UniProtKB/TrEMBL annotation:
Domain Isochorismatase-like: 10-177
Annotated protein name in UniProt: Nicotinamidase-related amidase
PANTHER family from the UniProt entry: ISOCHORISMATASE FAMILY PROTEIN YECD, PEROXYUREIDOACRYLATE/UREIDOACRYLATE AMIDOHYDROLASE-RELATED
Hydrolase as UniProt keyword: yes
The keyword Disulfide bond is annotated on this UniProt entry: no
CDD domains in UniProt: cysteine_hydrolases
InterPro entries reported in the protein's UniProt record: Isochorismatase-like_dom (IPR000868), Isochorismatase-like_hydrls (IPR050272), Isochorismatase-like_sf (IPR036380)
SUPFAM superfamilies listed in its UniProt record: Isochorismatase-like hydrolases (SSF52499)
Molecular function GO labels: hydrolase activity
The entry's keywords: Hydrolase
Amino acid sequence: MSITAIDPKTALIVVDLQKGVTILPNVVPPLSQTVASAVMLVEAFRRHDLPIVFVNVAGVAPGRNEQPYQAMSMPDDWMELLPELNRQPHDHLVTKRTWGAFTGTDLETHLRARGVTQVVLAGVSTSIGVESTARQAHELGFNVTLAIDAMSELSAEAHENSLSRIFPRLGETGTAQAICEALDRRDA
């Protein structure tokens, strides 16, 4: 489904575009495209004076699984957001330890306090951080829009599965450019 509306109180949520996550190999589509599209969205949300939430990840949820987290040697600044995102003091930062940005954080409270009814999602990884956050937002009753060219994944198959099978059931999808144009039309 393409974008039909941008609510008056819409927030941008940028998931895990941080130094430690973006050093991972074999990103589909190329991370440079994802970052450029995310930056386009950040700039548009700033122009329209809409809330921006940056999410970073600081660990993993406890529990057993068949594909345990493989700890890599990470640089000291691995949790820092990419500088291209130009985080400002009034932007909200959520640090998560699970796949989704709502679990165990103040994200829902922050959005509700600002009257937010819709979220636009971008970031990495398409099938993990972005998809989990989109599922949670949908379950909490937010209108969800997914910026399909502002997200990347380690696996092309997982990326395509999220785009074609999961996201259309959680909300509306569109490019960063289409979302920016919808913002501009809304405020014209």
